[in-house]
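haha ok so turns out i had the wrong file open the whole time. this is the CORRECT one, sorry everyone. sequence first:
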Amino acid sequence: MPEFLGPAIARDRLRVRLRELRESRSMLVEQVVSAVGWPASGLGDVESGARTIQPFALESVLSFYGCGDGETAELIRLARIAWTPLSQARHRLTDEYQQFVGYESEASRITHYQPLIVPGLLQTAAYAMAITATILGARPTDADVVTVVQVRRERQRVVENRLTAGDLLQVVAILDEVVLRRWIGGEEVMRAQLEHLLHQARQAHISLIIMPTAGGGHAGLGGVFELLEFPDSDDDDLVFIESATGDSLSRNPEVTAQYRGKVDRLRAEGEYGDRALRLIQDVLDGR
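then structure:
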């Protein structure tokens, strides 16, 4: 099966390879941009990931480096993929969140820990609108609420489209039991959300883990996070941390290792499979 590759990872692979090509020739950024006639900041911005290089501009750099036809064709392919605009760019999102959505759309395993609400990839539209309006203190029809719900639905649609195309991604959703018992949007909305969770938890690509309240404290109580893992060892895993004061995205190996450890502990202590399904059904049955 061909590898799934989207703009975020293509951009990362391209910038890393361009830096390797330059450094292997013991050249400074200024020397390269002077030779190919770029603005002084151009190549540095591309190598740092601050901007994406257009395919026609990349050709002049690769020609200057003396790259062979095979490598040139592959890097041009990456540039074309990287230049594809993300649909989320039309929404008013922070740079960090926009980057996160791009990487999430390409991860092979998405692990989302959420102690307060249903993880976004598993929310119904009605639940998403109700919880977003509550968090923002706004009406469900307000523009900011509608934008968040649209982006959430787009994230879900990306997963659906990848599965339809045969991409074997995995979604690990970890939530606290209290999330099931916090009735958001009224009884009708919440019952539909719980039934949706039951349905989703039976899908082959989803692992649902519930942290029971009777279990006391656990490693996830530090807050919301999403760990994005990629199949190629050359692509750095990422952690996205969401908070009320701002979002952060880290590819630091020490940070991602720390959160992989959190995930391992949560998986070991949480309820999953039939036990998780029974917890949801108990709430639906009023127990």
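Residues 172 and 207 are 5 Å apart (CA to CA).
again sry for the mixup
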